[in-house]
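Example 3.2
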Amino acid sequence: MNKGKAATALAIAVALLAMGALAVLPLSERNPYEVHEVPTAEEDATMEAQETGGGIDWDALPASVVAWVRVPGTTVDYPIVQAHEGDPDHYLRYDAYGGWNYHGVPYLHWKCADDGLLGAGNALVFGHHLDDGTMFSALAGFSDAGYAEEHSPIILRTPEGDAR
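Structure, written as tokens:
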């Protein structure tokens, strides 16, 4: 067999192996966090409901959820779960219910568990910044003072109360 035929046969074999590998890879997970713009009137009504105590049924959420973070006018509107020392990065790829999820869920650093979120002064919350506009990608805009002013305050809700 000459070198040209051998190279062609090798290229075909590699292509077939690549297609076979792609066929057995799992399909990408559907994004559970929809990206959408919130009209101003709807935003105002939602903010008013949250400020008067509406919006979150803490009893319906898993025990792992310790807070909820919301940034007005952005897609940031997520539960925050408590990480554990034995597996501190677990929630990078799992949701609040324990199911595998590429987007994960924002989570509080395991060392912040004892102080509680509102009494800690500073609490370290981890989460993804994804190119699809979900999770904490909207926070990148806070490097611009005008954007930060338009999307303030960041609201952190816990069963014990709210922080801004």
